[in-house]
């Protein structure tokens, strides 16, 4: 009996040794950058005694004051819009990817804008601290088109009983851990779903004009000018800096208005075709991570609020598979205070937060030594041929600043900066012309 036990023990030792050798071979065959990132994602953050408690979405207490540039409204006469976003990391041991984004539309009297939490990944059965950056980005795209449909229908005096907009973005990394790694927005698929008793011709006319005025969609469809800047050290972290923070719930309120919640079960689009997630083992995930592909969708629906005609509810997916409900609203005049962030504020936030995620991952891959970093953006949204059938909305320029406090060499910091920009899905979606697939449905039936 004793010999049998010894034989079993020796066999187990041999098997475990073989598994260990195989695991070691696989581990050390991976690029150093990939190993560094895996270790970063698997490790917990530092724990703190005191945490600032945030809601997932809440109003900014004061107007934003970027350190790297002076926010500017170039044209005060036209209907152009200028939006500023500032993002910073939030220190929390449960998430290495928790961040805060602050956004403000400029030129609005006594308006300070909004603050959101963004997170990526959560343990099974636990909600993340907020939607992902690309969830906000996709929400802004869908809600922005929804708003243009509502406005165009009103201007054309066409009664649309119900409007729903579904947007699906397909994102991809290409050789993420390599020196020339890049992130892409490959294709944006959009479904415009309308219920109405008016003729198909009138509905199609509304849709055509709304698509011309779809600021976020035209920004993706065409190449957008991005002016990136790197700011190293200096007195840039006095006002905005990474601090310990948390959120007690996925529920957010502004006074008595519900701003955010997680749906009891995943809400799916009506007409979008989603890819079935792959059930990969650990080794398969390690092999595919460098060329990761994933989808994010957003569904924008009318709330039918007579006092706030552009208030929309947006259901958004996240990489963690749960779906969130958030709201978007628009300004009715210069003294108006929307009930929720505007569609273009979500779009601006998603762009800045996505870049912040990539700076986090790039610094982890490089094992970069730093004190702090953040992103500051201003996006100039433009309108041309206003009040005509040739009206077009688009982005004029994206002014983007990456600020880092670090004693690393200039060469290393330049590499960190350029790689972060290259990996940013949202930024590349703007920089390059994105494939746009748009479909229309009237009373449940496709129209061509």
Automatic annotation (TrEMBL):
Keywords: Membrane, Transmembrane, Transmembrane helix. Pfam families: OsmC. It comes from the Bacteria. The chain crosses the membrane at residues 7-30. SUPFAM superfamilies: OsmC-like. Gene3D superfamilies: 3.30.300.20. This is Uncharacterized OsmC-related protein. It comes from Maribacter aquivivus. The lineage of its organism: Bacteria, Pseudomonadati, Bacteroidota, Flavobacteriia, Flavobacteriales.
